[in-house]
């Protein structure tokens, strides 16, 4: 109750929803403005931006770089917020006097941290890997890893 009141909770939820909506709206608008000249079939479970760009016949490099910069800023802001939140959580947990209480608190936090780490690491690999490593089976496995597994 001392770290998180209802106002802080509403602000954080609103920031998460707003940043997610902004990112999705920008990518959706860009995707619908790209002409596809190589058909519309891709070897993925869902429409991934790198896969859609492979089907494009226009040079959308500058638009995509702009979207990547906006997405990177949103990601970095969220990442910093998550790290700062975990620093506060771990600091509070280490202040718990009993070892059993600390163990119980860590057992609640560590699975979430593992899922966040899996999501972030596979997402970064999916979007930042060099094109020379790109292959349809690998792209499919990585997409499942960061979208279904967490």
Describe what you observe in this structure.
The chain is mainly α. It has five helices and no strands. Helix 1 (6-32) packs antiparallel against helix 3 (61-94), helix 3 packs antiparallel against helix 4 (99-128) and helix 4 (99-128) runs antiparallel to helix 5 (136-147). The longest helix is centred in the middle third of the chain and has 34 residues, at 61-94. It is elongated, with a radius of gyration of 19 Å. It holds the Pfam family 7tm_4. The chain crosses the membrane at residues 65-93, 105-128.
Indicate the radius of gyration in whole angstroms.
19 Å
Describe the global form: elongated
Question: Helix and strand succession?
Answer: HHHHH
The amount of helix comes to: over 70%
Distance between the termini: 28 Å
| Major sheet size, sense and barrel closure | none
Sequence stretches where pLDDT stays below 50 over 5 or more residues = none
Number of distinct beta strands = 0
Our estimate of the beta-strand percent is under 5%
Main location: membrane
Transmembrane segments: 65-93, 105-128
GO molecular function: G protein-coupled receptor activity; olfactory receptor activity
Keywords: Cell membrane, G-protein coupled receptor, Membrane, Olfaction, Receptor, Sensory transduction, Transducer, Transmembrane, Transmembrane helix
């Amino acid at each position: 109750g001392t770290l998180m009141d209802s106002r802080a909770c509403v602000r954080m939820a609103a920031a998460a929803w707003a940043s997610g909506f902004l990112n999705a709206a920008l990518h959706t608008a860009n995707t619908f403005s790209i002409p596809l000249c190589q058909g519309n079939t891709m070897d993925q479970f869902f429409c991934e931006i790198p896969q859609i760009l492979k089907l494009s016949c226009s040079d959308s490099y500058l638009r995509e770089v702009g979207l990547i910069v906006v997405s990177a800023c949103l990601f970095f802001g969220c990442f910093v917020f998550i790290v700062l939140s975990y620093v506060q959580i771990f600091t509070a947990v280490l202040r718990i006097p009993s070892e059993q209480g600390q163990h119980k608190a860590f057992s609640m936090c560590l699975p979430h941290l593992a899922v966040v780490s899996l999501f972030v690491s596979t997402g970064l690999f999916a979007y930042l890997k060099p094109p020379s490593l790109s292959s349809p089976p690998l792209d499919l496995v990585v997409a499942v890893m960061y979208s279904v597994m967490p």
